[in-house]
Amino acid sequence: MLNFTGSTKKRVINLGNRTTGANQQRFLEQQRLQRLERERLRREDDAARVIQRYVRRYLDLHHHIAALSPPASSELAIAYIRLASRWCPDSPNLPAYITQVIESINTNAHQLSPSDLRSLVVACQRVNLTKAMDTLVLNAPDNYFKAPPGTFAGVLSSTTSLPVALKVNIGDSVDAFVHWLMNHSDPKQSAYPQLINQAYLNLVPYTRDLPNETLVHLLAVYIGAVGSVALSDVSVVTSLLSPITTSISDDEDEPGMVVEPWIERNLVQLYSSQFLDKLLQSERHKLLSSLAVLIQLSPQHRSKLCTAICVKREVFGYLYNELSGHEVYQKIVNSPTPLYSSLSQFASIANESDFWKLVYMFIELLSFFLVVTNDISLQKDQGLFSLVQLAEFADLLKNLTLTFIIKRPEGSWDRIKYASINLLNQIHSINQRLRFLPADFNTLKEIPMNVDILYKVYKARADREDADSTVTLSNVYAAQLEILEHLPYFFPFMDRVHLFRLLVSVDHSENWFTFHQSKLEAQIRRGHIFEDGYEAFASAGPEFKNQLAINFTSDVGGREAGIDGGGLTKEFLTSTIAEAFRSDSHLLAETGNRQYYPSPEIYYKLTLDVDTPDQHSYLRQLQYLGLIIGKCLLEGVLVDVPFAPFFLKKWCKNNEASSINDLAELDESLYLNLLKLEKLSSDEIDELGLTFTIDENINGTVIPFNLIPGGDQVAVTTENRLTYIHQLANFRLNRSLRAQTNSFIQGLYKVIDSSWLALFDAEELKLLISGEDKINIEEWIKSSAIGGGYHDEDVTIKNFWEVVREFDVEDQKKLLKYVTSVGRPPLTGFSSLEPPFTINFAGKDLNRLPTASTCVNLLKLPDYKDKKLLREKLLYVINSEAGFDLS
Fold this sequence. Notes:
By secondary structure, the chain is mostly helical. The protein folds into 5 domains: 35-67; 185-311, no CATH class; 312-441; 492-770, Hect, E3 ligase catalytic domains (Hect, E3 ligase catalytic domain fold, Alpha-Beta Complex), CATH 3.90.1750.10; 772-879, Hect, E3 ligase catalytic fold (2-Layer Sandwich). Helix content is 56%, strand content 5%. It has 41 helices and 12 strands. Helix 26 links the parallel strand 3 (520-525) and strand 4 (548-553). Pfam families: HECT.
């Protein structure tokens, strides 16, 4: 067999360490590199020859053209300039000649052909004759510059003249004109607004291809250039607005485009009623698309536009009619199945961008309207939007929101999704007061809630967040959790109660083993329960979840017999609350309906620096009271205290601000008077002499508080009365209560997770805290225990239950409160009362009264046998509020 090394006639014997193969490879590689080098040299030589040829040609042309004398004929002058400026731009005599030619033809510039004009403009650029070029352009006919972009390329980079730039316009290029506009303006020129309007109108056909940043910048430049929106051309503004798909922000950590302060200052003018009036005169499509962009463009100024629209009632109605009449809207509401039942159904409308812009705009607008309107106007259909219309739109909103959550469609839907969630929650709050939605509106049959499974998923997510894990959840459970987090009322109330109890019980048991500590012990004097408990437990924080060991003592120090197996803890908690809610307490105030909320006097005195140490002490005591209420929820101890609904709302929503409609719960008289203020004429308001202040009585002295900075100098008028109404409501409901409420919920959240309370609204939370209002006698009997010598068949026991059945509801509640300290059964029924309602034998002394041990839900009942006597004795003790172990 032949080898391929070239040695075919001799035998190759390797006697050493020679590596013939490696040498061969090196040789081949060297040959390859040499070939490449020879090829490179050949290319360089060819390139040099080409360059030499062009240089020789250029030099020859330069020599011949330089030898030519400028022609005397004007017909040949432009041809000469075209050649000379290209081949001899450095000729010393050429600039003077071009200037001379331009001066000679300026008076007859309209006789130039467009191509000749173009040649002269290019020549001026080549020899840096900016002034001559500007003169030529200004004298040339306007229609010469209505050429395709690029015809006069380079002009805008060569001139600083505003009239020249505006005349050439996009004839240079769209990008060059946009760049020039963004970097040059001179609004001091008298004709500038008219020139700039025309310039931007030429740009209109190209705005949809410009990026968001450029559009926003141009818009701000344009408004600054024309001086005000009054002088603006609405076609220019709408063409720049409509393509924008982002929002601006003044915070780099927030989503959106960060802009310079001057840009934002100029854009604010677009949110005025003056510009809205101009916008209303534009075409329907431009009006809708521009409003939709303005709503999202500057969130911090959105309220100004919303206010202007709400003032113009016809605009609000027009926008709703446009939305409800839209083809996609009708398709959704008329579909036999919900939108969230099929992703393909949503996909068929996902690309309807105009519809989604309109939906988002109306959601934000309606959300604002519901904040500033009042329930009475809604009920009487006096506002911009009736309850009937609100119910119709709520149905569409529910459909869309659940689709975003359940089906999780691809694309950027978060903005509209969270706006929809916010509005749905607003509508739910209104429905809690006015009950205008169908009874089954909150029923979600498509996603039944399995409490046990959802609890495990909920807990898994919480553990994942704590551990910073990457565990993912299935779409079904992720959707259920999101609904539970943002729209909990779509799941049945009792299911959420069950979930809450599961979370609380597991947290309680986990806490028991986590802390590895003994019970929290305290010696509590009977006459100083709040004071001693505060000293013992105020600093306990989350450890207050641990089991308590309460030892009661008399005021002189004698310790009461007994071990705290839970009964003494219950008595301690209920007694602490009773002391805190005494009429002489500095912590709480009462509404006209005798419902409790934090005392605003604490804020007043802190603001005025009156008794400051005491006020700070009251804030710490409110935090301790929150700790106590949280412990009651943790232990299942009912609290028979009527909290004000607007205060309960703040528990559920982490001290979220209350609105004007909540003012009726605090001070109904003030609420109605403020609504009357909306109807008064200008003269009637002037007669009242109101300013942006509110008077409060502090230690017998009436002191005014400003509702806004300098409010005592601002008179209330028809123009600002709506602001006055909302500022006054804000002061009474939020500002004067914020510090106190924060202190309270800080204590509450140390024991009960805030997200657990967010499962409920204020009305539901009231039931969770204080129990069910209705009493089921049969369940009461079935869940009770009989002991201490009594049996179910004893006459006294039978008589007792007969008397209870015959009691009216109020007496039944009084009896229940006498024995358990709360006049309501637990929310989940008497079966969950711990310990159970118990009746014990208390001897046969017929003169003795029934007594109770509320700490263990125990009634000590003498064996009266006589039903009439039993009734009299029970009525006496429950109506005289006889206390613990009264005989």
